[in-house]
Amino acid sequence: MSLHYPRVSRIHSVHPAAAQATTLLVAARRRPDPSRVEAGGTAVDGEGRTATVGSRALRLTFMEFEFLAHLVAHPLRVYTRRQLLHLVWAQEPFGDSRTVDVHIARLRRKLGPEHRDRISTVRQVGYRFDPRGAGTASS
Fold this sequence. Notes:
4-stranded antiparallel beta sheet; globular
């Protein structure tokens, strides 16, 4: 893998684990995502940047859309806050990873009471999208 950023190359030469994490991150970001994904009545159209739940269109911020699109594309998989930040920002995030909690809380409100439980909290780990609406029994 050829890196074009000298600072990143230097970090990787000092910290081999950083190189492995970046390789995994780049592979995940380069994986072709379908332009439209749907799970449990929640549909996300990446090309049109639209999201719907049932027949209702959602008005999402950029970050809310990115989080929802990723979670819906990978249902039932648990992601840590740090993983979600890496996948959405595609770089090492600055600041507190708890910012994910704020975005998820807003996203749940926008999904509405009948669909909010599709994004479940896995206590002390992170979040997962469950198309069956398993609830937050593990939160």
